[in-house]
Design a protein that fits this description.
- The protein contains 13 helices and 4 strands.
- By secondary structure, it is mainly alpha-helical.
- Strands 3-2-1-4 form a 4-stranded mixed sheet, sandwiched between helices.
- Helix 6 runs antiparallel to helix 7.
């Protein structure tokens, strides 16, 4: 089968250039809108059912023989208990069919769980929508026959039918002579076994090929769903405004920001020239990028536990820690991370830099 360019399934709406946000994907999931392939569900159930049928074939054969034996023994009886006969046939029918049906149900549930990434219960998909009562034949025809999705579905159906017909024709043609020979020499029992083996081979080959088609359909459905969920720049802005009022999203964003802040503080302290403390409540990290700035810059600051953590990181990485209570308190209050130190602190900062030997070692000649 030729490769399919998944770009065919790109979002058709103009302006939808932004990837869908986690918020939008989560809302879609809550509404029951997911990337899902019914094709994969059906083929997986078919595949597992075929395997189960082949494994249980000898046992099913014995059960069928028991039913036929019972039928022929009672066929000539003058008085037949219809209820007893019907109950006997129903019992054997259920015994033979239930294991296969149960395995098929389990396969269907597992397939849905895999595609849904867990259990999903929602009533929104079964809520009546009055705009769907009036049939839109034009839209249906366009989507079914005059769109890339429709062409793909038609191609998929034709391929399945064609592959089954071709495989069935080849297998029957290869085994037809042997079946007639069994009928002439070995009797109908051997012929039936030969026919059953041929049918098993046909079912397995078709199940494997259809499963491959189902996997391909799932990949296409995922890509198509992702493209359909893309957003315009305006939608991104509106969603951000909506998210600001969502307590759950707000809490999540705060957690992410705190994690990023911790990571940035660690990096900033490692690269700092000095950490000024008061010494228990406040800590301020300074870095002087002489090539790009005329004065040192505040690269990190913190209080209480964050301040203690900054001092530990500084000591572990050989960064000088200077205790200066009024300077640490003033810098923490009057500056933000990324600020150049105010002119009012210039003399005090210069004293600190001389104290740690920074000016003498690096800029003595300046």
């Amino acid at each position: 089968m030729s490769q399919i360019d998944l770009q065919w399934f790109a979002a058709e709406d103009e302006g939808k250039t932004e990837e869908p946000s986690e918020y939008k994907l989560r809302k879609a999931r809550e509404e029951g809108r997911l990337a899902k392939s019914q094709e994969l569900n059906g083929t997986l159930v078919f595949f597992v059912t075929v395997i189960m049928l082949i494994l249980l074939a000898p046992w099913i054969e014995r059960k069928c023989e028991e039913v036929l034996t019972y039928f022929f023994r009672n066929a000539t009886a003058t008085k037949v208990d219809d209820k007893k006969f019907a109950f006997f046939c129903l019992k054997y029918f259920l015994i033979m069919i239930l294991p296969i049906a149960l395995v098929g149900m389990i396969a269907g549930i597992v397939s849905n769980l895999i595609q849904n990434k867990g259990f999903l219960f929602t009533t929104k998909t079964i809520m009546p929508k009055f705009d769907k009562i009036v049939p839109h034949f034009g839209r249906y025809l366009k989507r079914s026959f005059f769109s890339v999705e429709g062409v793909f579905n038609i191609f998929k159906s034709i391929f399945k039918v064609a592959i089954i017909v071709i495989i069935a024709f080849c297998i029957i043609r290869l085994n037809l002579t042997s079946i007639f020979n069994y009928l002439r020499t070995g009797g109908p029992r051997l012929a039936m076994k030969s026919f059953a083996g041929m049918a098993a081979v046909l079912l397995v080959i078709c199940a494997v090929l259809l499963l491959a088609v189902g996997v391909l359909d799932y990949i296409v459905q995922r890509r198509q769903f992702r493209e359909s969920m893309k957003m315009t720049k305006q939608e991104v802005k509106e969603e951000y405004k909506e998210m600001e009022g969502d307590p759950e999203v707000k809490s999540h964003l705060e957690q992410v920001q705190r994690a990023m802040l911790r990571q940035n503080i660690q990096k900033a302290v490692k690269e700092a020239d000095v950490v000024i403390t008061n010494p228990t409540h406040y800590a301020v990290a300074l870095e002087w990028k002489r090539d790009t700035a005329e004065l040192p810059e505040v690269t990190a600051k913190g209080e209480d536990l964050t301040a203690q953590n900054m001092k530990k990181i500084a000591r572990d990485n050989g960064v000088p820690v200077v205790e200066n209570r009024p300077l640490a308190r003033g810098l923490y209050t009057d500056t933000q991370v990324g600020d150049i130190i105010p002119a009012s602190y210039l003399k005090a900062i210069a004293t600190v830099y001389v104290q740690i030997g920074y000016l003498d070692k690096k800029y003595a000649k300046v």
